[in-house]
Structures are given as structure tokens and as C-alpha cells.
Amino acid sequence: MKKRTKEILEILDQQYGTEYVCYLNYETPWQLLIATMLSAQCTDARVNIVTKDLFQKYTSVEAFAKADLAELEQDIKPTGFYHNKAKNIIACMRALRDRFGGEVPRSLEDLTSLAGVGRKTANVIRGNIYHDASVVVDTHVKRISNRLGLTKNKEPEKIEQDLMKELPKDHWILYNIQIITFGRSICTARNPKCEECFLTKYCSGSK
């Protein structure tokens, strides 16, 4: 690992600790899968408000698999893009029931074969449920990794590959958790708080 990368990770560890935190509320793997699907183009805080009632109404994979599309659309409407999300959730839960015995699969290949599940969602599941080291590339990770010079790529899959080479495996999941906090509080997309930033010396965007 490069000295520069090591210094960045040490500072992030000091600032945010090394606890694994998931910002989406869930009790079962399939609940996390649905919450992550709902979080596309939506804040985790809003998803948690919606899933609080949603998971009391639909209490199993089977319940979601049998859900009425129009009714589910209304249930998840506040998360945005609800037509697509509702359709994908029903198809995804049916696949879990019919192909995977109601269990959320572990492999990237199986996960990404499900409706509405891309690499990012699959890696959230692998990291949080199965503790398989994986790099989750969301908007914060994409923006900040470029600013910190850890990647020059813009495509999530290429960024994921770059970070897997650049970061030690024990920081793959942790880096995402830390960068989400950093991206929400300091290194925001618009008007980043550079005067409060503890990583300015590593930032290409601040020069």
C-alpha cells in the first residue's frame, strides 16, 4: 500500500473509528436487500421512515412476492422512482422464493441476477450480511476517491477495481462507511467545507 493511502486511512480511522455501521435499518437479509434497492436516488433517512411501516405490513419474502403492484407503489412512493422500484422488488422477492429457497444468496453472480440488483447493492449485502470484503461504490465514494486521487475513473465498476488494488482488504467495507459520513458532513458534492477538512493536503480538488 502506498504511504499516501496509508496516511489517508489512518486519518479516517482516527476521525470515524473502525466500527462497521449500516445506515439502513433492517432485521433480516431480505429486508436489507429491499432497503438498499429503495435507497437508490433517495436518502437513507427517508428509506428508514418508509421501511418502518413497510416491514410491518409485509413481514416475509412471500408477502412481498405476492404484493399488489399498485399498492406497493403507493407504500414506497416517498422514496422516488417508485414504479420501477416496486416492480423490481416484487420480481426480486419472487426469485428469492422460487430460485433460492427464500434466502438471500451470497455470490455476486447470484445477487446481480436478481431484478433491480446491481453491483453496488450486491456488495452492500455481501459486506453487511456475509462480511465478505467488498468495495461499495456510491456517489460519495465515487466523488471523494477521485478528489483524493485514489482513482481517475468515473465508472463505478472501474473505481471498484481501482480501490480493491489501492486499499487493504480490511478497509474495503470500512472505507465506504467512513467516506459516507465524510461525504455527508464535510466533502459534500456542492460547496464542500474545505476549511473544516482534515484531508485537504491529499485532495486534488482543493488545489
TrEMBL record:
One of its GO terms (biological process) is base-excision repair, AP site formation. GO terms for molecular function: 4 iron, 4 sulfur cluster binding; class I DNA-(apurinic or apyrimidinic site) endonuclease activity; DNA binding; DNA N-glycosylase activity; metal ion binding. Pfam families: EndIII_4Fe-2S, HHH, HhH-GPD. Its cofactor is [4Fe-4S] cluster. [4Fe-4S] cluster binds at residues 187, 194, 197, 203. Binds 1 [4Fe-4S] cluster. DNA repair enzyme that has both DNA N-glycosylase activity and AP-lyase activity. The DNA N-glycosylase activity releases various damaged pyrimidines from DNA by cleaving the N-glycosidic bond, leaving an AP (apurinic/apyrimidinic) site. The AP-lyase activity cleaves the phosphodiester bond 3' to the AP site by a beta-elimination, leaving a 3'-terminal unsaturated sugar and a product with a terminal 5'-phosphate. This is Endonuclease III. It comes from Schaedlerella arabinosiphila.
